[in-house]
Structure formats: C-alpha cells, structure tokens
From TrEMBL, chain A:
Limits of the Myotubularin phosphatase domain: 1-300
One GO molecular-function entry: protein phosphatase binding
PROSITE patterns: PPASE_MYOTUBULARIN
Coiled-coil spans in chain: none
This protein's name: MTMR9 protein
GO CC term, one of those recorded: cytoplasm
InterPro entries assigned: Myotubularin, Myotubularin-like_Pase_dom, Prot-tyrosine_phosphatase-like
Segment forming the signal sequence: none
Taxonomic lineage from the root: Eukaryota, Metazoa, Chordata, Craniata, Vertebrata
GO BP annotations, alphabetical order: negative regulation of autophagy; phosphatidylinositol dephosphorylation
Listed Pfam families: Myotub-related
UniProtKB/TrEMBL annotation, chain B:
Gene designation: Mtmr7
SUPFAM superfamilies (UniProt xref): (Phosphotyrosine protein) phosphatases II, PH domain-like
Chief site of localization: cytoplasm
Lineage: Eukaryota, Metazoa, Chordata, Craniata, Vertebrata
Polar residues biased stretches: 565-595
Annotated protein name in UniProt: MTMR7 protein
Ranges in a coiled coil: 520-547
C-alpha cells in the first residue's frame, strides 16, 4: 500500500515521466494496481483547474482508479460540531435527537471511512493487488485510509506497541498537520479554516472495530480517549507541530517528553490494555451496515452520561480475566 | 418420525445482505415447521421455522430464475426463497397461508411438542413459578393487604386471575362495586408492594366516568389504596394514555379519574400511544431493516420516522416516574390505560424491575412476567396471533417491554443476572407456541383448555438451560445494585440504541462474531473449576507423596483448557468475509454516473470476481475472523442464538436423515 498526494496534472494535462516510471516499477508485468482517490471524480477533475488532478489512464495504464469521496476540512469540522451540540442539548425529544444525529452526518463519515479502508484492504488481501491512496494533499483522508486499512489487515498494528508505531508512521511522521487540525475542537465559535477532526474520525473508526471485534485489539477505549485528548492539548510533545520538519526546527524531541514514554509505563499501560485481547492472526472485516455503526458514547457522551456503571462492567471484566 | 406435506427440490435460499449469495436445497413443509435443508456439503445446514412464527408470506413476481417467496417471521427472521416451478410455489404459498393461521388451539405446536418428560416433570415445570410465593416474598398478606377471592369463579372479572390482593379496608362490596365502574371490570388490584415503606403499585383499567358519572365504591377503593400506605396522604393516579385519547374516551362513557371526585389523588397523564400506533411503528422500523444497503442517513431517518425509540423511551419514562414515586416519595400509585392489559402491564413491570433487584434475577424475571402479564390477563392470543384473528389486535406490546429491559441492561451491565440471549429467547417463545405459557387471553381460558396438563412450561425449559442465559458480569452482592436502579431521564435520548441483536437477529454479518458474554462465562466456569481442583489438590498435597506428578499433570491440563476455552467459545463464530464495501456510493451526491472509464463502477469487487471468498473450513476456527462452525452447542437447542428456530427437537430430527 502506498500513499501520496495528488499528481499535478493541471489544466494542460501535464505528464511526469519520473512519476509514471515510479508507479510503473511498483507493479510487475501484467499486474494491476488500484488507485483509491479520496475525492469524488468531479472534485478530482476540478482540481486540475488549480494545478492538481488525477492520473490519466493513458499514462498509468496498469492502474485502475477508484473514487471514494471522504469528507474533510470545514464540512467535517461542522459535522463534528453539530454532533457535539446535539449531544449536549437536554431539550431534545427523541425524534429531534435522531434528526440532529442524522443531519450531523458524523456516522455517515465513519461509515464512509471504514468502507474505504476496507476497500483498500480488500484490494490487497483478496485481489493481491497493490494500492495507492491519495486525496489532494495526502495529509488527511489519505492517512485516515492507510492507517485504518493497516489496523484491519495487520494483526501487529492491533497490539499496543504496533498501534503506537502505526500512529507514529501514518499520522505523525507522515505529516498530518496536527497543529492546524486539532486547534480548538467542537465548542469553539471560531471556525478555523484549517481545522478538521480527521484524527478523531480515525479514532472513532478504530473504536468501531474494537466494538465489532472485542477480542482483537490489545488496547481498549481508554487509549483512544487519551489519544483524542492529547491531540488537542497535551503535556507531551508527540502531537506538536504539523510535520517532522517543524518538529525538528522547534527541537521538540529535545525539549519535550514523549506521550508514548508515559503511556508505556507499566502502571499506565495496565489501564490501557484490553483484558479480552487474544492475538488474532486474521484480517478483521467490519460490517459497515448502519446498524453496526454506533455512536461512540464514551467520547461524545463522556461528560454527559454517568460512566460509573460501564466502568464497573469494565472492571468486572478485568477481574474475571485476571482471576483466571 | 415426522410426516411432511410438501417437498420441493432445487429451492434457493437467498442471503439478504448479499443478493448474489444463494444456497440450493430442498424445502419441506411439515405440520409444524417449514424446513430448508442445504444440498451437498457434509454439513447440510438446516433452517427450521415454526409456522406460528410466520407473520406474513409474500409471493413476488416470477423472474427468469424462478418464483420468489418471502416469509417474514414474528421473531424478525426474513426468509427469501426462490422456487423453480410456479405451481410448486403456489402450493407452498397456499399451504403456508393455511398453516400459519391456525383456527383451533389444538393445531398449535405446544400440543404436539414432546420434550420427553414424564407427567411429574411436566407438573414440576409448571410449579417452578409460584405467584403465591411471590406475593409472600413481597410481604403480603399483611396488616394492609389481603388476598381477595371474590373472583374465584371469574364471576367479577373474567380477565383477572382468581386471586388478587386488595387493601385490607376494601370489602367485597367495594370491590364488586368498583369493578362495575371499570372497563372490562378490571378493578384496582395490587401489582407490587414495597415493604420498606408500604408504598404500592396498583393496576386497573379506566373508570367508566364519562363526563360526570361517579361511583362511590370506586372512590372508596382508591381511598382504601391510600389508607394501605400510612406514610402518605395521597396517591398518584397515572393514566398512561395521551391526554387527548383519554378525553376522547369520555364521549364513549369511559375516561379518567376527576381529582375533584376522588379525594387525595394526584392525577397524571403519561402519554404512551396505543396498540395501533405501536403496530405501525414496528412495521416502519422493520421496513428500514429490510432496506438493501441503506446509507447511514436512510437508516437514521427511517428509525426516526418509525418513532420506535420514542415509544420505548415513553414506556421507560413512565416506569421511572412510578418507581421514583414509590422509592423516593413513598407514595402509592394506581396505574391504568384503557383496558389495563397493555400499557399498564408494560409500565408496572418496568417500574417493578427498577425497584426490586429480585426481578433482575432470572427466576425473578420469570415471576414478573407471570405476574404482570400472564396472570393479569394480557391478551397473548390476540396480540401475538396464536390463532388467526383480527389483525388490528396484533401489537408488539411485550416486545416493547422486553426491549426496555434490554435498554436497561445496556445502561447497567452488571445489574441483571440474565443476558441478552435470555430476552431474545423469551420473545421468540411468545410467538412460537411451543410452550403453553403464552396461550389464550386470560387465566380463565387457559384453565378451560387445561393448558398445564396438555403442554409444557417455557420457564422449566429456560431454567434447565440457564447456564446459557447468565450474565457473567452480574454481581448480586454489589451494593449499588441491591436497590433501585436510577436510569437517567433527561437528557438521555442518546442512550437508547437500536437493538440489532433482536431486529437483525438472523443477520450474522452484522454482529460481533464472538460473544464476549459466552467467553466470560467460560472464563468464569473455568476459574471455578480450577479453584475446585486446586482445593482438591491442596488436600492431596498435604497427604500424599505422589502429588508432585499430579501437579505437573494439572499444569498441562490448564494450558490445554485455556486453549480449549478459546476454541469452544468460538464454536459459534462466523465466517468473517468482506462485505460488499463497494456498493456504497449513493450516499455521496457528488458522484455522477456518467464518469465512464475514468471512474470505476460499483461492481468492481464483488463476490463473483473475488478469487477466494470463504476461508477454508478447517483453518483457524478459533479466531474472530474465522470460520463458521455449523454445529449447535447444545442439541436441545438452548445453546446458540439461531437454534430456537433451527434447533431440532430430538424426535423431529430423525426423518431428515434419509
């Protein structure tokens, strides 16, 4: 699986021999590859007007392009804000609540992200084909898809250590602009242009996987919540800045502590582990039917509903497994 | 041996989610079941459906591949068959119509069902739930409440049981007088007594008050209820209907209690809609469930449009109100709706469940249903269509109650002794007519038909298999759960989830493949076994020299066992294959179909062009993403979820061997 940003085809249908060669060498003779473009076909076409575009079939004959539009940017932030608003409104009747849940479209975005990641995984696992994923910049929906696909495909990404490695690779080092994306979160009135909860969407999708495959992830909901918290505001330097270059310039590694170092301490790690975990060597294919995708109560209702009974249940599960 | 009326070969059973997946097999119709047996493979998977479960049969337009027949069941199973010959399809259709609509009780499965128990075992089964014991457990009869036998020959109210509890100060004269002023003669009677504070929940039907009628005895009855609770100087009267409906009833000579006429009552409407609204609500929700590849929006919009969760919440809110009145205010409550056998039953049983931890045990739950539903004359026959009857009487009343319990279980995972499967199986049997508990419309009718002598009790069956129904997280000693449960009232719409375990019960692809409940139960059992073993060995160690060897044997046994543990609990794990992820394009408005060769079509990755769809049967059967093991755990059919349908009773299974 490869990722990139969009090719700079532009309005004059520019070509780049090196790019074509690069993608050509990846595939064997007669082998077929898939390009998953996270923009709609229309948006991708329009991108040409501003210098971007898509890979024309004639120049990349072995690659088959699939468009799976995923929401990003301002609309995604709006979606997030609407959902949080709906959750905090005590005056809503059941009908209004479901209506607001639907119109926030957050769960639709979760479904779309999971479906696209599954598609990428399917291409690789079932079709034995190579996959190239890109959107426009290659820093948002691209990473969402590649990271999620790896959780689905690779059991090592489902271990605590493996998941941390995945985050480092596919989000942090890959250059997801955390500083811009995770600025003010949902309650802020200021709608910053660059703010968008892609990382949260990723965590939500991982949570959906943990719900559908309760035995297959080595970590539990606590880790996901902790990551969410730290992406927005953290005592650690892990999610600072927008890319490795900035981190280097700011001397992040020299002047801050790593979140992973904290989380991996034995006492902390204990809280994060999933007592039901048992190594699952297979690919986990989630159901993306609407009934299978649920509101992540642990995050969205975190401060609204009492968690004591669920905490108690979790503690009981831990106890049962430990006693054994 | 079993005889079948019809046998049709080369029938295809379609999979709802993946319309390309079809299984070829033979269809059989027997006196009690529809059976589909898959061809070929050694497994020969069978699907059994009881006729009594069939809700509707739809013959669809004949296509090139055959005649489609859609069978919808009351337990939400939907079976889509394609029968090659039109004439066969017609025969099956006509037969099923007749078989699914029995006219006489004797046609029902419970009268031929034979679990091979002797007469005494059958009797014992019926005695498992004893309402007299239950009232005693509550603390009655006592200084305030007495048993009343004025209805001993059903002479006062034929839908009530022979024995009910009434306040000490309610004489026979008052009771009879009050019954004449109540719809269907359903006078106020005790549903639940709280011995901690003497507050009670009583139930009745609506008073025949019209616009201005009064009845001294009925007013005295309510006073008697108030007097039975010295801790409070008033009672709540809760009418579970919407105010408008109740007011409309006045024009028909019925209505509700006027606070001016009844001294010391506080009247309250809690609007729960009627059986027709609920029937339509469920219908709409099931339509959403039948959508092929719905988008998230389609689904949520459909769910909202059905109003189903709104109704569930309304019932729950009513139960919460009553529980609060009893537990926190120490005030007695009289609950009624129109006839006092639908919404009243729902609301009283939810309130009892919240108030009393006993009802959250398995036995207690059975008792609760016997008390508030069976003994108080909930019209099982009319509501669930045991016999062919008026379709307007059909309504998912007990289904809603069962769902309220599930919603509570989701909010309070440690508070219930039983698990989701218990609820699902109970719902299944409300419609299955395999046991005699939920037949007829009243105790009187059941006694006339001699149900207990001619059928078996569901409770005994469930009790026998109770290991399958336990909640591993249940801790009876948790002080938090000893008292009243306090669900949030508001804001909490978001706490209500769509119960896909019930409404998509048979769509395996939708559910987590491995059950956490089953796994934890197995862990618990194993821990217990190991602890017992440890004790025994500990003793032996103190005595014998050979114990060294014994220890080593135990260690290796342990390892094997935990490996077995994972293996055995995944016997029900399902083939985890990729869905058709690529069909999902209609939710993106930006996609235009004319993109031609630049954009790939939705059909790129279908089951057809996937090289290998299902993993090899023999590999990795202990993993979540693993393989379907089609053998049911317990042959009696109590083990795995689908078995209540496809489970065969031992005597039935024989004939298919040929």
């Amino acid at each position: 699986m490869l990722r990139s940003s969009q090719p700079l085809t532009g309005p004059n249908r520019r070509r780049c021999r090196e790019d074509e060669m690069l993608l050509g060498t990846i595939l064997d003779e007669g082998e077929r590859g898939f390009i998953i473009d996270t923009r709609s076909a229309q948006a991708a076409k329009q991108a040409r007007m501003t210098g971007g575009g898509t890979e024309p079939k004639s120049s990349y004959p072995q690659w088959r392009r699939l468009h799976r539009p995923l929401e990003r940017g301002r609309p995604l932030q709006e979606s997030f804000a609407k959902l949080v608003e709906a959750c905090s409104d005590p005056s809503l009747s059941m009908d209004r609540w479901l209506g607001r849940l639907e119109s926030s479209r957050w769960l639709s975005h979760v479904k779309a992200a999971l479906s696209t990641a599954c598609l990428a995984a399917q291409c690789m696992d079932r079709e034995d084909a190579k996959v190239l994923v890109h959107g426009a910049e290659g820093t948002d929906t691209t990473l969402l898809v590649t990271a999620l696909a790896q959780v689905i495909l690779d059991p090592s990404c489902r271990t605590l250590a493996g998941f941390q490695g995945l985050l480092e690779r596919e989000w942090i080092q890959a250059g997801h602009p955390f500083h811009l994306r995770c600025a003010h979160s949902a309650y802020s009135h200021a709608r910053l242009k660059q703010e968008a909860p892609l990382f949260l969407l990723f965590l939500d999708c991982v949570w959906q996987l943990s719900r559908q495959f309760p035995f297959s992830l080595e970590f539990g909901e606590q880790l996901l919540l902790s990551l969410f918290d730290n992406a927005y505001a953290s005592s650690y330097g892990t999610f600072l800045c927008n890319n490795e270059k900035e981190r280097s310039l700011c001397k992040v590694k020299e002047s801050t502590h790593s979140l992973w170092a904290w989380l991996n301490q034995p006492e902390e790690q204990q809280k994060l582990l999933n007592p039901l975990y048992s190594h699952n060597a297979l690919v986990i294919w989630p159901s993306v039917e609407p009934q299978s995708i649920q509101l992540w109560q642990g995050l969205f209702l975190r401060w609204i509903r009492p968690s004591q009974y669920l905490d108690e249940a979790w503690a009981e599960i831990q106890r049962l497994v430990e006693e054994n | 041996l079993c005889h079948f009326f019809i046998q049709v070969e080369n029938v295809r059973l379609l999979d709802r989610l993946s319309s390309r997946k079809a299984v070829l097999g033979t269809l059989y119709l027997t006196a009690t079941h529809v059976i589909f047996v898959e061809n070929g493979s050694e497994t020969r998977k069978e699907t059994w459906v009881l006729h009594s479960q069939i809700s509707s049969i739809e013959k669809q337009a004949t296509t090139a591949t055959g005649c489609p027949l859609l069978i919808r069941c009351k337990n939400f199973q939907v079976i889509q068959l394609v029968i090659p010959q039109e004439r066969d399809c017609h025969d099956v259709y006509i037969s099923l119509i007749r078989l699914a609509r029995p006219v006489k009780y004797e046609e029902l499965y419970c009268f031929s069902f034979n679990p091979k128990l002797d007469k005494e075992e059958r009797e014992q089964g019926w005695k498992l739930v004893d309402l007299n014991e239950e009232y005693n457990r509550m603390g009655v009869p006592n200084n305030y409440w007495q048993i009343c036998d004025v209805n001993r020959d059903y002479g006062v109210c034929d839908s009530y049981p022979t024995e009910v509890y009434v306040p000490k100060s309610a004489t026979a004269h008052i009771i009879v007088g009050s019954s004449k002023f109540r719809s269907r003669r359903r006078f106020p009677a005790l549903s639940y007594y709280c011995k901690d504070n003497n507050a009670s929940i009583c139930r009745s039907s609506q008073p025949l008050s019209g616009f201005s009628a009064r009845c001294l005895e009925d007013e005295q009855m309510l006073q008697a209820i108030r007097k039975a609770n010295p801790g409070s100087d008033f009672i709540y009267v809760v009418d579970t209907r919407p105010k408008l409906n109740a007011m409309a009833n006045r024009a028909a000579g019925k209505g509700y209690e006027n606070e001016d006429n009844y001294s010391n009552i506080k009247f309250q409407f809690i609007g729960i809609e009627n059986i027709h609204v609920m029937r339509n609500s469920l219908q709409k929700m099931l339509e959403v469930c039948e959508l092929k590849s719905p988008s998230m929006s389609d689904f949520l919009w459909g769910l909202e449009n059905s109003g189903w969760l709104k109704h569930i919440k309304a019932i729950m809110d009513a139960g919460i109100f009553i529980a609060k009145a009893v537990a926190e205010e120490g005030v007695s409550v009289l609950v009624h709706c129109s006839d006092g056998w639908d919404r009243t039953a729902q609301v009283c049983s939810v309130a009892s469940l919240l108030l009393d931890p006993y009802y959250r045990t398995m036995k207690g739950f059975m008792v609760l249903i016997e008390k508030d539903w069976v003994s108080f004359g909930h019209k099982f026959n009319h509501r669930y269509g045991n016999l062919d009857g008026d379709p307007k009487e059909i309504s998912p009343v007990i289904d809603q109650f069962i769902e309220c319990v599930w919603q509570l279980m989701e909010q309070f995972p440690c508070a219930f002794e039983f698990n989701e499967r218990f609820l699902i199986h109970i719902q299944h049997h409300v419609y299955s007519c395999q046991f005699g508990n939920f037949l007829c419309n009243s105790q009187k009718e059941r006694r006339e038909l001699k149900i207990q002598e001619r059928t078996y009790s569901l409770w005994a069956h469930l009790w026998k298999n109770r290991a399958d129904y336990l909640n591993p997280l249940y801790r009876s000693d948790h002080s938090k759960h000893q008292g009243t449960l306090h669900p949030q009232i508001a804001p909490c719409n978001f706490l209500y989830k769509f119960w896909s375990g019930m409404y998509n019960r048979f769509e395996k692809g939708l559910h987590p493949r491995q059950s956490v409940t089953d796994y934890l139960m197995a862990v618990k059992e194993e821990t217990q076994q190991l602890e017992e073993e440890l004790e025994v060995l500990g003793e032996r160690l103190a005595n014998l020299q050979k114990s060294q060897l014994g220890d080593n044997k135990v260690k290796s046994k342990q390892q094997d066992r935990s490996k077995q543990l994972r293996l055995s609990t995944s016997n029900n794990s399902l083939a985890n294959t990729p869905q058709e992820y690529s069909n999902d394009l209609k939710s993106f408005p930006s996609r235009s179909p004319s993109q031609g060769d630049e954009e790939d079509s939705a059909l790129i990755l279908t089951q057809d062009n996937l090289k290998s769809s299902d993993p090899d049967l023999s590999a990795n059967s202990d993993q979540e993403s693993g393989v379907e093991d089609l053998s049911c755990r317990s042959p009696s059919g109590g083990g795995c979820l689908p078995s209540e349908d496809s489970g065969k009773d031992s005597d039935e299974a024989v004939f298919l061997a040929g």
